[in-house]
Specification:
The chain is mainly α. About 80% of the residues lie in helices and about 0% in strands.
Length: about 475
């Protein structure tokens, strides 16, 4: 079903075939640009660590402590962006472009409101939270890095929601471009602000904010100047409508809460790690986890890509297309992650060496390499978690994905808390790995059960 008449709107850039075309090709067309965006984003986060590591182990630990707060802010934008992607693609699949455009506008307004609210909350809570995580004697460094991030929270959120809107209409390349611009400029500006302008650790935060502002330029051009997007954003006669808000919320709210909880749980994880081995072990945990997240980009990208593809299929009322897309996506993801796991384990010493420039931080390399090798064991299970969560979200069952995420993180937190009492750091990584593998299987089974309960399902997914 065509989302609009090409003769009536020849100026529009129609990328809807990326979500409405052949499902197997759609997974590749959508996931490849998203993978690039995620990869550059994670390299960007490592760039902060890379340049800050030159300031010493305390600065590295300060960035590690503030990271969960930053990720909470980003999670709000990404969560609402996922809800927007779901709402927009489902309406495009049903052939209702006007409603899809309305969903895009409302998602932007919801993000602005959330950004201002987050700024107010974090301004009050950031100090106690950082002290809880063990900032102690480095609280000044943590504050220097945290305050610019908090003040510009609405701006940092906007990239995630606009990327979600573009992803929802199938414009994966444009969605990627916004995120890549922000990351590339941050990588370039980090050394300028930190060293050339002599701003120290605060320079890393300001480089991030300036880069986020620069990334908004192409988005403003597409939406306000060129006006060739499939779902335009116009605030004329704006009003919230129940159907669009509900559609955005039934996936966006659970996804936002899910991502925020994961970020907040990492506060507890950092606290447990800090209790076990001090700020040195915090640096080991955060640096290694960032490397691991880069390696898991393909699984995340395919999960993100599946949300609009599957949502559009549900909008088209085509369960067979849902099955083909999901099965192809999950097989591709598991296969890729198995290969990456082997390569990461082999290259672990060299990867961690890149993140420890100073002599002070170099002593942490062996511990980082050990943690990274253990983490590779759950890489394929991470594919199951991401793809299965995408299936539940595309059915509008974001709360089911949220519930499983909460339980999974509580299980990891319980393991961390118990092991921190005995101050056994290495067992923490093993405990996390076992939990991730177990919940990979549980999430996959739950998604299949929920999908097969749908009255429109034909033949079982196992027959594909």
């Amino acid at each position: 079903m065509a989302p609009y008449d090409r003769k009536e709107a020849p100026h529009l850039t129609d990328s809807s075939d990326n979500i409405l075309g052949d499902p197997r090709k759609a997974v590749l067309r959508m996931s490849a640009p998203i993978a690039l965006a995620l990869l550059v984003q994670y390299l960007n986060s490592l760039a902060d660590m890379f340049w800050v590591s030159g300031l010493g182990a305390d600065a590295l630990a300060a960035v590690s402590i503030v990271t969960p707060i930053y990720m909470t802010i980003i999670s709000v934008g990404n969560g609402i962006g996922t809800g927007a992607s779901y709402a927009i693609s489902k309406r495009i699949g049903a052939g209702d472009r006007e409603s899809a455009s309305s969903a895009a506008v409302q998602s932007v307004v919801i993000t602005l409101i959330a950004g201002v609210a987050s700024l107010a909350i974090l301004a009050v809570a950031v100090g106690p939270v950082m002290r809880y995580m063990g900032a102690g004697g480095i609280i000044g460094l943590c504050t220097d890095y945290a305050y610019p991030v908090i003040i510009f929270a609405p701006l940092l959120m906007m990239g995630g929601v606009l990327s979600g809107c573009l992803r929802g209409e199938g414009a994966a390349k444009r969605s990627t471009f916004i995120l890549v611009v922000a990351a590339v400029f941050n990588i370039i500006l980090d050394p300028v602000f930190i060293y050339w302008l002599d701003m120290g650790i605060a320079g890393a935060a300001y480089a991030m904010v300036v880069s986020a502002a620069i990334s908004m330029i192409p988005a403003v051009y597409w939406y306000a100047v060129k006006k060739d997007v499939l779902t335009p954003i116009s605030f004329k006669s704006f009003r919230f409508t129940r159907s669009e808000v509900r559609s955005i919320s039934e996936v966006g709210v659970p996804q936002t809460v899910e991502l925020v909880i994961m970020s907040l749980m990492s506060v507890f994880f950092v606290r447990s790690v800090s209790f076990t081995g001090g700020t040195d072990l915090v640096a080991v945990f955060e640096v290694t986890w960032r490397i691991a997240m880069i390696m898991m980009v393909p699984a995340q990208a395919i999960g993100f890509a599946l949300v609009p593809i599957l949502s559009a299929s549900f909008g088209m009322k085509d369960p067979d297309r849902v099955k083909v897309s999901f099965v192809h996506g999950i097989k591709l993801s598991v296969a890729i992650m198995a290969v990456i796991a082997v390569l990461t384990a082999l290259l672990a010493p060299y990867l961690t060496e890149l993140m420890t420039l100073s002599d002070d931080s170099a002593r942490l390399r062996p511990y980082m390499a050990d943690m990274l090798v253990v983490c590779t064991l759950f890489f394929p299970a991470f594919s199951l978690i991401n793809a299965s969560s995408a299936l539940m979200q595309s059915m509008g069952l974001g709360t089911a994905s949220l519930f499983l995420t909460i339980v999974r993180n509580l299980a990891i937190a319980a393991v961390y808390a118990w092991l921190s009492v005995f101050r056994i750091a290495s067992y923490m990584w093993w405990g996390m790995t076992v939990c991730e593998i177990a919940f990979g299987v549980v999430t996959f089974v739950a998604a299949i059960v929920l999908f097969r309960r749908d009255s429109h399902i034909g033949r079982p997914i196992s027959q594909l």
